[in-house]
Amino acid sequence: MTQHLMQDVVLCADDYALNAPVSQGIVALTMLGRLSATSVMSLSARWAEDAPALREVRQRLDVGLHLDWTSPFAVAAGHGSGLTRVMLRAALRLYAQKNIEAEIERQLDAFEVHWQAAPDHIDGHQHIQQFPVLRDALSEVLMRRYGAHQPRPWLRISQVAQPGLKARIISVMGAQALHHWAQQHAWPTVSPLLGTYGFDGGLDDYARHMQNWLADLPPCSLAHPAALIMCHPAVSAQADDAIGAARKREFAYLASHDFVQHMRNAKARLVRGSGKPIEI
């Protein structure tokens, strides 16, 4: 298999520090070489406790911030609410940009104090990083905080590869606008995004989803050297986690030989969005 035939993909596990099974699952899969990125929920009280385990594998994957306006952590912090309300308030521009900037700074501070470094990337829980007002605030913070930083943290742009309603909703909520800003400012990005499904079905269903996503990887180019597949694994299902059962299935599949074989069949390889090598 020659190198030019390979399809590069960033496989990013979301929600690190959400709960113990999620963090444990992400570390375990990283040690198996099955992930190349993870995104941290820095508002979680677990982040301080779970950061050391992630530092043990920091040379194997990119570690970034999962900006949060919609989880129970965000609600408890006083700035968050349900996704529908956040989308509506953002669309109507009812948020004060300076307040959003201050909250983004707080979440970055909470990330960096325990990670002891800048994030490799920044994305958002339920794609909030590209909503109106929020993306404007994020762009201001990025330039102020990391504009002179090398390498700059890459952004996940949630432009879905598959056509349809999901793609149109995401585009309307700001994927194209954030991508345009990144191009104007030579800011690194990884897109398109794959990995969206209903968190339903069984283990075989998830395996088929992954095979389809791998088959849909766009050809690598200078503009898009790698695509991104998001996942949400955990070693077990926690009772208060609405998608706990799906997380457990995802972990089982990603830890299996089937996943390795499906990657080989698709001529795909895992890479880090930062361009840093995956050190085993």
Question: What's the structural blueprint in terms of helices and strands?
Answer:
Layout: E1 7-16, H1 20-31, E2 37-40, H2 46-55, E3 62-67, H3 72-77, H4 83-91, H5 97-115, E4 121-124, H6 134-146, E5 154-156, H7 165-172, H8 175-184, E6 189-190, E7 193-194, H9 203-215, E8 227-231, H10 244-254, H11 257-265, E9 268-270
Parallel strand pairs: 1-2, 1-8, 1-9, 2-3, 3-4, 4-5, 5-6, 7-8
Overall description:
With 280 residues, this protein is α/β, with parallel strands linked by helices. The protein has one domain: Glycoside hydrolase/deacetylase (TIM Barrel). It contains 11 helices and 9 strands. The protein has helices at residues 20-31, 46-55, 72-77, 83-91, 97-115, 134-146, 165-172, 175-184, 203-215, 244-254, 257-265, and strands at residues 7-16, 37-40, 62-67, 121-124, 154-156, 189-190, 193-194, 227-231, 268-270. Strands 1, 2, 3, 4, 5, 6, 7, 8 and 9 form a 9-stranded parallel β-sheet that branches. The longest helix has 19 residues, at 97-115.
